[in-house]
Amino acid sequence: MKRGAARLLRRLLFAVLVLAIVLYTVFPFYWAVVSSLKSGAALYTVEFLPASPSLDNYVAVFRGQPFGRNILNSVLVAGSVALVSLALAASAAFALGRVSFRGRATLLVVILGVSMFPQVAVLSGLFELIRALGLYNNLLGLSLSYLIFTLPFTVWVLTTFIRELPIELEEAAVIDGATPWIMLTRIFLPLMGPALATTGLLAFIAAWNEFLFALTFTLTDEMRTVPVAIALITGSSRFELPWGRIMAASIVVTVPLILLVLVFQRRIVSGLTAGAVKG
Fold first, then answer.
1. Could you give the count of Cα atoms lying within 13 Å of 179 in the half-sphere of its Cβ?
2. 20, 76: one domain
3. Number of domains the chain is built from
4. Residue among 240, 72, 245 nearest 231 (CA)
5. In which region does residue 175 sit, left (phi positive, over 0), alpha (psi from -120 to 50) or beta (all else)?
6. In the list 40, 146, 166, 266, which could disulfide-bond 81, CB 3.0-4.6 Å?
7. Which of 54, 80, 95 is the last residue of a domain?
8. Has residue 274 been placed in a domain?
9. Burial level of 254, CB count in 10 A (0-12/13-18/19+)?
10. 7 is in which domain, residue-wise?
11. pLDDT of residue 235
12. Are residues 35 and 126 located together in one domain of the fold?
């Protein structure tokens, strides 16, 4: 009886802990949704459900600024960064994970070291580079600058993953006369689907949420991405804080990320090398 009661108590405490974590992580998003449906003095009242919900804040976000263009800018920049990072990282990971050459460990450490620098430390030098290339206030300049923090991460993750793939796959391909490019594109890439989905999604989210480079390297409203556009939302007067519109804009740009995670969830949790080697 005592053992059963102790087991029941542990399960109850675990359920309470899980519930507390869920509330802690989900409640801010829920409160943002509730706030986005309020306006005026209702924003400063505590209501778990708005008494008079309205979509005026969502309409005002798109009417007061080119927010649709800002979303498109973020999609183009984040998508291009994720694709380029995966393309470069996949080939680099194959070389670092499967090819033995002098200085491989040092190169991996250097790649990791690049990602340790804070953005503000490289901001001035990168600004001069972007301006010299004529990419200031250009989406291509943002995509190029974002590779600084997405590429080292994707290279490290894919290198670790490709090292875990069975060596028998590579040996069989060598016996059949496959070139390194054939091994990468026809053997390893199909097996790297879950890793590619995970790293690509994280790179996309990092580029989507980036603020400092986007604020520094863009000038006009039409070239800004959504984090900067949200930060620059202003009220009708300098003393008014448009919380409703800010919350509405935040919800609009957060929902696509949630949908992406839900879409790629099955791919992420699927078997990594299930069925790769038989016998």
1. 3
2. no
3. 2
4. 245
5. alpha
6. 146
7. 54
8. no
9. middle
10. 2-54
11. 63
12. no
**Token couple for 56:** 């005026």
Cα separation, 187 vs 204, whole angstroms: 25
- Which letter does DSSP use for residue 223 in this model? G
Block residue for tokens 């007067």: 237
Q: Does 279 reside within a domain?
A: no
- Report d(CA 191, CA 206) in Å as an integer: 24
Do you know the residue count of the chain?
279
The pLDDT of residue 110 is 83
By CB neighbour count within 10 A (0-12 exposed, 13-18 middle, 19+ buried), where does 53 fall? middle
Cα 117 to Cα 245: distance, rounded to the nearest angstrom: 34
Looking at the fold, whether 90 and 16 belong to one and the same domain comes out as: no
Q: 140 with 10, same domain?
A: no
Instruction: Return the sign of the alpha-carbon dihedral for residues 166, 170, 176, 178.
Output: positive
Q: CA–CA separation, 204 vs 224, rounded Å?
A: 17
One domain for residues 7 and 133: no
Scanning the structure block, which residue is given the tokens 């994707």?
154
From residue 81, alpha-carbon distances to 75, 140, 183 in Å are: 10, 10, 25
| Mean pLDDT across the chain | 83
- Is there a single domain that holds both residue 42 and residue 61? no
Q: How many CA atoms lie within 13 A of 88 on its CB side?
A: 16
